Amino acid sequence: MTRLLSTLARAAALLGLAATTSLPTAAQTSWPDKPVRVVVPAPPASSLDVIVRTLGDKLKDRWKHPLVVENKAGAGGMLGMDMVAKAAPDGYTLGIGFNGPIAFGPHMVKKMPYDAAKDLLPVVLTTSQPNVLAVQAANPASNFAEFVAWAKKQGNKLSYASVGNGSSSHLSMELLRSVAGFDAVHVPYSGSPPAATSLAAGDTQALLAVAPALLPLVQAGKIKFIAVTSAQRLDGMKDLGTVAEAGYPGFEALAWNGLFAPAGTPPEVVARINADVNAVLADPDVRATFARQGLIIGGGSTAEFKAFIDSESRKWGAIIKKVGITVE
Length: 328
Known about the structure:
This protein has about 325 residues and is α/β, with parallel strands linked by helices. It has helices spanning about 1-20, 25-30, 45-65, 80-85, 100-110, 115-120, 145-155, 170-180, 190-200, 215-220, 265-280, 285-290, 300-325, and strands at about 35-40, 65-70, 95-100, 120-135, 160, 185-190, 205-210, 225-230, 255-260, 295. Helix 8 links the parallel strand 5 (about 160) and strand 6 (about 185-190). The longest helix has 22 residues, at about 300-325. It is globular.
């Protein structure tokens, strides 16, 4: 009997060891045990800020801790993403990155403060948003094909506004010019309001930017939309045709954003964040909030997000090189 009990005890000990080794790691079971900081490389009330706060309202219920938003605008988003890249890789500092400091910057900024491909881990794509092509209300074009025909007649007299040098607004128009074959002089502004004002005043003749920033001037009858740069028509703007369906199949230019963690963050923590954000992005209230802002829901795996970033980097890197954009 004693020998039997001893044998059973040893077996139980072995089973206990096996169970222990199969349990989730401490990071899986204890994370998060305090608030999670999310760096937003844009000002308060910006679209990135709203996206993070909307997600945070739902994530706090899952994580039992709040998200602490830290706005760090500047240097085209690089100041904020540099903070993320240099933070402790423990899952308690995340950042919402976007085209500029992730896919565009490495091709046009001479000295980046971080290596976007090595120092930042893509976690999950949050949303994307197409630009819309806007012209003065009096412009004779009513669709993109008519706009291209009109633009070609202008020769070198046509100028277009953008929300900033090297922005999605700028680079998307350069791609548009390249595929459609018309000339235009770039006039960069500091943000959507002055760029839109220049268009309404006739100082420039076209502008690609996200729709919400331009809607007040559309409603005032000063400018109008010609086309959208998404692959499909937008739910809230079904009457607005895409560039792709106007004779340029495959054309798509989106302003996108997603969550990033410092390189070295435990993979089980990254997987947890990815799964929870995907669940929140499927929430009807979140989807409705984003749809009202013209945002396209993201989601997907970390591998899919990384592959998307790599594709965007190759695509826009070629355009940046062709145009010759450099930023000190």
